[in-house]
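queue> holo job accepted (adenosine-5'-triphosphate)
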Amino acid sequence: MTDQIFAGLEIRGLRVAFDGFVAVDGVDLSVPRGDIRFLIGPNGAGKTTIVDAVTGLVRATGSVEFGEQQLLGLDVHKIARLGVGRTFQTATIFEELTVLQNLDIAAGAGRGARTLLRRRKGVPESVARALETIGLTEHIGKPAGVLAHGQKQWLEIGMLLVQDAKLLLLDEPVAGMSADERDATGELLGVIAADRTVVIVEHDMEFLRKYARTVTVLHAGKVLSEGSVADVQADPKVQEVYLGTAADAAVAEASDDPARPADPAHTVNQEA
Ligand SMILES: Nc1ncnc2c1ncn2[C@@H]1O[C@H](COP(=O)(O)OP(=O)(O)OP(=O)(O)O)[C@@H](O)[C@H]1O
Ligand SMILES: [Mg+2]
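queue> job finished
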């Protein structure tokens, strides 16, 4: 029943260490169903590692619940079958196969080999719906390799939709996209989130301002700030670490000696 009220992602005390280096250090994260949550933070903040932990790619401690199901400790395939899908920064589609074949393989991922090998008549309903959602219906017969950069990312998202993913974790999907492709992706996020939960790692600030519902800022493996776009932008802690370059520039400008750049370490010490 709580499952119906929440049915989102609940992360508690998540910790990931690589040979003693703590990449994710006690992260709590609640993402309700229907949210479009942006994860931002400087390079190395632990964003991708959180996605890896949720999807079973790295070992982690703490708790990761989706609905009422504990995901930590399950293997990658089991987590995918529970409706958790992710994309990688470089699209992982089969370039030589057609758009339809890519979706077909994804749709068959949970089925037996015999079902997969059976010749199909027409396009399965789930595949047709995904094609419509990602806007690739007219490209159904093209090899995925000839698609534009943005279309490849959308195909990858389509592959998660035909797998019936209810939680989608997207790692920097708009990197390298044109402005039009970004806007189309933003619209797509809105459609997807109507009955799913979306967590998106993204560096693009303009995209974030336009399409984020909520934002979690990570820094050095910890949650630094959380809230609406306006909330986190107004948070001095965020300005200090995430927009550090802008702050440093301001300090440099105000410096007595214009030839000498401000020492960022000194700036941080002043704040402490
Ligand atoms: N397999 C690994 N082995 C050792 N260290 C790792 C491994 N994966 C990640 N790390 C380290 O963990 C930290 C967090 O990395 P992560 O990739 O999660 O950062 P990120 O926030 O996604 O950064 P970016 O914005 O650059 O993608 C980094 O210091 C990184 O070097
Ligand atoms: Mg990353």
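queue> Strands lie at 9-18, 21-31, 36-40, 61-66, 69-70, 84-87, 167-171, 197-201, 214-219, 222-227.
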